[in-house]
């Protein structure tokens, strides 16, 4: 019997005009202290975080939970201090010099072939994200935070595999083409554009003019 896929929460900080980074590109530096708290709370909720190799290449590390209370809560529940980092890469082009490989967490790889170093687990790329996520579910991942990048987010949305949106809106206007969903990405399912597709489940100020918006995907099977 086919297993269940994890609940996927997309977590992003975006500008008022929907950009992830300045027009000139580079690693995104959006979000202040309030956004960092919200991000760490999402990581504490998750069993793993999913990150594209391009985003990892830009930052050369992933986000860790620094709040000791959140770490202690995970440990008390019998969970690792940090969620596993699942890297999606079609090329396997990663460098052992990245700080990512010294960070205190489990590293899993989604790629066409395994690597001989750096990753504790490997999963071959599946034909669809639904199938890929079911594989992660079978490995014990029930809650997954999707950290990007934009193309990876677009791929999961195209497969209607995103269940929750956690968006921090930052009071900056950046311009350029670095939108949080690429304009060149394949068309998304028509259902996602409908008024009943998403339910607002929260909005809160984070300070410094930032707002945290939460939405949940409404599906036909939902009661």
From TrEMBL:
The answer to whether UniProt assigns keyword Oxidoreductase to this entry is yes
Q: What is this protein called?
A: Riboflavin-specific deaminase
Look up the record and name the pathway of this protein.
Answer: Cofactor biosynthesis; riboflavin biosynthesis
Q: Which residues form the Bacterial bifunctional deaminase-reductase C-terminal domain?
A: 6-189
In terms of PANTHER family, this protein maps to: 2,5-DIAMINO-6-RIBOSYLAMINO-4(3H)-PYRIMIDINONE 5'-PHOSPHATE REDUCTASE, DIHYDROFOLATE REDUCTASE FAMILY PROTEIN (AFU_ORTHOLOGUE AFUA_8G06820)
Name the domain of life this protein comes from: Bacteria
Instruction: Tell me the enzyme class.
Output: oxidoreductase
């Amino acid at each position: 019997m086919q297993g269940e896929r994890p609940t996927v929460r997309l977590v992003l900080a975006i500008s008022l005009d929907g950009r992830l980074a300045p027009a000139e590109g580079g690693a995104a530096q959006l979000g202040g202290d309030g956004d960092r708290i919200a991000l760490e709370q999402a990581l504490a909720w998750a069993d793993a975080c999913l990150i594209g190799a391009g985003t990892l290449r830009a930052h050369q590390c992933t986000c860790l939970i620094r709040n000791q209370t959140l770490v202690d809560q995970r440990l008390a529940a019998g969970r690792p201090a940090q969620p596993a980092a699942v890297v999606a890469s079609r090329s396997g082009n990663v460098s052992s010099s990245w700080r990512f490989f010294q960070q205190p967490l489990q590293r899993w790889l989604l790629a066409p072939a395994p690597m001989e170093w750096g990753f504790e687990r490997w999963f071959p790329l599946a034909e669809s994200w639904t199938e890929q996520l079911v594989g992660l579910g079978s490995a014990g991942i029930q809650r997954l935070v999707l950290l990007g990048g934009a193309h990876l987010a677009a791929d999961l949305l195209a497969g209607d595999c995103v269940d929750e949106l956690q968006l921090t809106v930052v009071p900056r206007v950046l311009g350029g083409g670095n939108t949080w969903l690429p304009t060149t990405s394949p068309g998304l399912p028509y259902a996602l554009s409908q008024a009943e597709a998403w339910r607002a489940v929260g909005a809160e100020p984070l300070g410094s003019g930032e707002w945290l918006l939460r939405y949940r995907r409404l599906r036909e099977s939902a009661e």
